[in-house]
């Protein structure tokens, strides 16, 4: 179903991809890169979590320019290559954590606002990206759950996410992981807009002040809840697609693909200006 918002600029066509998350936009590339639609795209991103453009085929320069139009503060931009090929990405082992639900920046006080990712090479099988709307997941909780979760805080640790990839690290590996200090964040993020979202993902270690096993059970239950089909959009990549997601109101993960497939994504990021609260 195609739904066009009243504020839609001429030439910008919107299709909502699921009821609770993700919209696809169609627009002239030159106008898009010029920033004509930037305010509307940013508002839609906060409303829907994910905005996708099919087979846009932006150049590196165009992707950086487009990303810049969506920012609200001055920052430097660079393209990060997301690939398992160590010749193209020296941190290929690190990004294996992308296969598990996560929010970027949980080790920071202020996470990035959004990521902009384009597909440059695809895997023949797998490699889709899934997104979970953590605003919608919170809104759908019972009043009892909302009251119980309101003041809980969760300790996030880099080493917790790395154990998904390497359950039995060497002592040297563990020491490197522990160079990242734990970060305690609210389980329920009350945004300056007044909206609330869940802060979950693979870095979540335990609930502060709660029995360890009880806390693990709660975090697992909430992750399962937030990733129910009604809150999730799965993007089936086509070459040249561009997808933007609101990192402050979604979790995401890549689905498995062959490590030697050559899959390559180019990612740019928009700095955040709202700390976890």
Structure overview:
There is one protein chain. The chain has helices at residues 29-34, 38-48, 60-70, 134-139, 143-149, 158-165, 171-177, 212-226, and strands at 13-16, 23-26, 50-53, 80-82, 114-121, 129-133, 153-156, 183-186, 188-190, 196-198, 204-207, 232-235, 242-246, 250-254, 264-270. It is α+β, with helices and mostly antiparallel strands. The longest helix is centred in the C-terminal third of the chain and has 15 residues, at 212-226.
Rg to the nearest angstrom?
19 Å
Major beta sheet, strand line-up = 1-2-3-13-5-15-4
Q: Report the strand count.
A: 15
Main sheet, how many strands, which sense, barrel?
Answer: 7 strands, mixed
What amount of the residues lies in strands? 15-25%
Share of residues in helices: 25-40%
Number of helices: 8
Task: Based on Cα principal axes, name the global outline.
Answer: globular
Q: Kindly, what is the distance between the CA atoms of the first and last residues, rounded to a whole number of angstroms?
A: 36 Å
Q: Order of SSEs, N→C? A: EEHHEHEEEHHEHHEEEEHEEEE
Poorly predicted spans:
1-7
User: Average pLDDT, to the nearest integer?
Assistant: 94
Structural category? alpha+beta
């Amino acid at each position: 179903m195609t739904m066009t918002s009243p504020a839609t600029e001429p030439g910008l066509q919107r299709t909502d991809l699921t009821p609770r998350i993700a919209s696809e936009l169609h627009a002239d590339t030159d106008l898009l890169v010029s920033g004509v639609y930037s305010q509307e795209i940013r508002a839609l991103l906060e409303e829907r979590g994910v905005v996708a453009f099919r087979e846009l085929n932006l150049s590196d320069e165009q992707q950086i320019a487009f990303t810049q139009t969506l920012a609200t503060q001055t920052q430097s931009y660079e393209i990060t290559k997301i690939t398992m090929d160590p010749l193209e990405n020296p941190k290929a082992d690190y990004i294996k954590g992308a296969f598990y639900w996560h929010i970027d920046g949980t080790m920071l006080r202020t996470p990035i606002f959004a990521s902009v990712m384009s597909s440059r090479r695809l895997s023949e099988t797998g490699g889709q990206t899934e997104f979970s709307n953590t605003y919608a997941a919170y809104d759908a909780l019972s009043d009892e759950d909302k009251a119980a979760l309101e003041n809980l805080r969760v300790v996030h640790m880099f080493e917790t996410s790395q154990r998904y990839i390497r359950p039995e690290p060497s002592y040297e590996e563990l020491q490197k992981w522990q160079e990242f200090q734990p970060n305690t964040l609210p389980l329920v993020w009350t945004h300056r807009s007044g909206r609330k979202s869940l802060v979950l993902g693979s870095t979540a270690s335990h609930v502060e002040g709660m029995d360890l096993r009880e806390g693990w059970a709660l975090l697992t239950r909430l992750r399962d809840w937030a990733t129910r089909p009604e809150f999730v959009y799965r993007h089936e990549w086509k070459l040249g697609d561009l997808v933007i997601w609101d990192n402050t109101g979604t979790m995401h993960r890549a689905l498995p693909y062959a490590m030697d497939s050559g899959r390559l994504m180019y990612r740019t990021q928009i700095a955040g200006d709202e700390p976890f609260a």
